[in-house]
Amino acid sequence: xxxxxxxxxxxxxxxxxxxxxxxxxxxGQEPDxxxxxxxxxxxxxxxxxxxxxxxxxxxxxxxxxxxAASGAFRIADxxxxxxxxxxxxxxxxxTRVSIRGGVGGTIPRTVQILVDGVPLFNAVEGAADLDTLxxxxxxxxxxxxxxxxxxxxxxxxxxxxxxxxxxxxAKEGWDGSVRAGAGENGTFRSQGFFSVGSxxxxxxxxxxxxSVRAWSDPYYTVAGDHAFQPQNQAHGQTFFIRPExxxxxxxxxxxxxxxxxxxxxxxxxxxxxxxxxxxxxxxQSTTTGTAQVGWKQDWNPxxxxxxxxxxxxxxxxxxxxxxLADSPSSPxxxxxxxxxxxxxxxxxxxxxxxxxxxxxxxxxxxxxxxxFVFGADGCVSTSxxxxxxxxxxxxxxxxxxxxxxxxxxxxxxxxxxxxxxAHDTLGGGTxxxxxxxxxxxxxxSVLRGGWFTSTxxxxxxxxxxxxxxxxxxxxxxxxxxxxxxxxxxxELGWRKTFGQLVTSFTLFRTSYxxxxxxxxxxATPRAVSRYVNxxxxxxxxxxxxxxxxxxxxxxxxxxxxxxxxxxxxxxGSQTYFVPKVQSVAWSRWQRGxxxxxxxxxxxxxxTRWGTDNGLVTDQARPAVxxxxxxxxxxxxxxRLSAYGVNAASRATPMADDGxxxxxxxxxxxxxxxxxxxxxF
Length: 680
Hints:
Oligomer: single chain
Low-confidence stretches: 1-30, 658-663
CATH topology: Maltoporin, Chain A
Strand content: over 45%
CATH class: Mainly Beta
Shape: globular
Number of strands: 41
Radius of gyration: 25 Å
Structural class: mainly beta
């Protein structure tokens, strides 16, 4: 079918199904956009509702009104334009996120993502794939990003920060929307949301689906002198439902969510100088599923509790590995794969993680200026055997922790402190304290200073993996003594509201200790590699700036910027994949039936690395990312728009891992298209 035919088919399907629920908020229910900017309400910094102006830690939130105006279909596209957040596109393979720069290079593993309180970091694969987050964007009420170490509240693995995604809640009556968009490269996306509020029972739910075809532009090696045409079609689905029953002064709820992505066959290439094909995977897939039940109780105006039990299941699957007819070396390579793990002969899941856990949180507010939060949580993590990861036999690890925090407003100053005592079988026992001082200056401004600490436990393969296969250049050795990483962060911040504007700056200095890195020990006949704790992991020093507000009635905007100096202690140069400079500008304009949203990000140069018969490094060129959405509402409940993602460039090199398929640098694609939506 021709490209034009696909466009027609996608748009006809959208019209027939009443597609693209404009993400339009019912009249009288949308919060004032300016109020959301000047006095945004957040919960992530202290696990209790408070104004962002008096938050003890650097935090940014984006609410549903701005999400809807952006026209975005993916959570990743919203996170891209938040302050000092780096979204790393791997084309259809993966989309990762880091905060304040990656630690140690390649895939960031130290950002905790929570969806309605369920943590998605897992001990096998690490960072969650943003493309399979189990929530359609139209079902999201708010996204909060806490920048910097946050283990005192959120446990191990919240080392760079926390991303909290909160879903929408039902209003009395019925509300629903559907929307769809079609764009270049055979892109088709659709999402829907519904909510029903009837007496004491509320139900909310949503769905999403997307599809993209193989890219017409080739991948290039890190060295830049070889290219090949990938077969990187992809298809994804998302589903979410949450019923909630109010019982007296409490409520019971259940929630089930699933995100899945399937990629078509892909050819893996070898390194220089031959660049021969290695093998072909018949398919690739990633899934993230969550389920939880919970009970929330307001015992009295000063005492509330929340108990939740959850399960997370994440997989990374591949189809059978087959040889390439045009590559003489391919049979030998495939033979080595099968010798390492016979499961590669058929489709299977090299990564298969299940986490089952629970958490209890109690909020106590004995007086208007005194707030306590305390609780306990735990998780059992399991994984079957994965020979390609060096995991022989099933894996089972446990983690648990207790925590407490206090916010005390003394009038002239306010204190915020907290402590977590945690233990897990991978990282041992750890303490994660924090302390912050907040000083209102009396002129609409607030000064804050804080000390925050965090940890990251080893992953299964870092501590347990062991294999000796000619498929790899070295023997992998386990390290049962591997301990957790640690981070200590000092922050100084200032926020001020004046008129229709709010501004802020944050100075931070984060030192990493016992950073988990891989050590290569020369030996005969083969070198031995293992993961070790590097005592000095480096210090990241930076400045973050923000200005937001309203220029004219109906015209809101935001400007943010970040500078970072993060030298690698082994080389003295900037750590891999850490841009020194980045900035974001966004604006939302409304008049009559028209609405325009635009966002631009400047992403400064950074050093990346890959393999090309040895380690290769180069400088990624600066990039400008541009998203826009021009919407028209001809009648109430209907919305038409033209949108663009990464619209400034056909392809922007934004991959954080040059080792995917041996030597390839992945990209963020441009996506230009049309949307149509209805609300009913």
